[in-house]
Design brief:
single chain; alpha+beta; 8-stranded mixed beta sheet; two-stranded parallel ribbon; 27% strand; globular
């Protein structure tokens, strides 16, 4: 489910015995560092329940190589992925719990769409991605823009879930409010596109995705370029 970027950006996604599908290039959650920050387990490279930022040079060789490839993608302007990488995620609508379903209580997630730029879009439904002790700690909500483009927002309450985040300083190429963030654009050979903006506070990690290239001339002309994605992220109030 998480793409190579997200694994590179958040190397230690699920350290409490919980797992997500990863591709063959993903980094193990166990990522010891050359220089260990205070309070960080030197064998894991993270501090459970916390988010840290480390320089690329402090990563072990395998993790550093993957992060370097992400930097190379940044210079090109996009990462090339398979058609299936994006197409499979676009089928998420099949697995959604519809709006208003009692299985997703209103208080379970921190973002309230009605108070954000998402309120202008059609709410399609929610995919519950992770439970801890019966409580929802990760979920993806899907919306449809007026032009039919899918937009998703994922929340992972990593502190409560017993997880941790290790951000790579050089991969943080933008901001969302006070938070350092990463924007990545994916291109598939068949023409599918996806733009992802990821950031976190001290408790929760967020990923905002739109199935479009926000740097394309068409998106910019339609008012759906980087500025639009940034403003949507800012409206979430994280």
């Amino acid at each position: 489910m998480m793409k190579r970027l997200m694994i590179a950006f958040q190397l230690s996604m699920l350290l409490a015995g919980l797992a997500q599908a990863q591709d063959a290039n993903s980094i193990s959650p166990v990522a010891p560092l050359r220089n260990t920050p205070p309070g960080v387990d030197p064998a894991l490279g993270v501090r459970l329940g916390h988010a840290i930022v480390v320089p690329l040079d402090d990563l072990p060789a395998g993790a550093r190589a993957i992060a370097q490839r992400s930097l190379d993608d940044d210079r090109r302007g996009f990462i090339v992925v398979s058609d299936a990488t994006i197409a499979d995620e676009m089928q998420i609508q099949r697995d959604l719990i519809p709006p208003g379903d009692a299985r997703i209580p209103d208080h379970a997630l921190r973002i309230v769409p009605a108070r954000t730029g998402l309120a202008k879009m059609a709410f399609v439904g929610t995919r519950p991605d992770m439970l801890r002790d019966g409580r929802l700690v990760m979920a993806t909500r899907i919306f449809e823009r007026g032009d039919g483009t899918l937009v998703s927002v994922r929340e992972w309450q990593f502190a409560e879930a017993g997880g941790a985040i290790q951000n790579v300083r050089e991969l943080l190429n933008t901001r969302v409010g006070p938070h350092l963030a990463r924007l990545e654009i994916e291109h598939a050979p068949g023409g599918l596109r996806r733009s992802s903006l990821s950031w976190n506070d001290g408790r929760t990690a967020y990923t905002l995705e739109v199935y479009d290239d926000v740097d394309s001339a068409r998106a910019i002309a339609a008012g759906h370029g980087r500025d639009w994605l940034q403003q949507l992220a800012e409206s979430l109030g994280t």
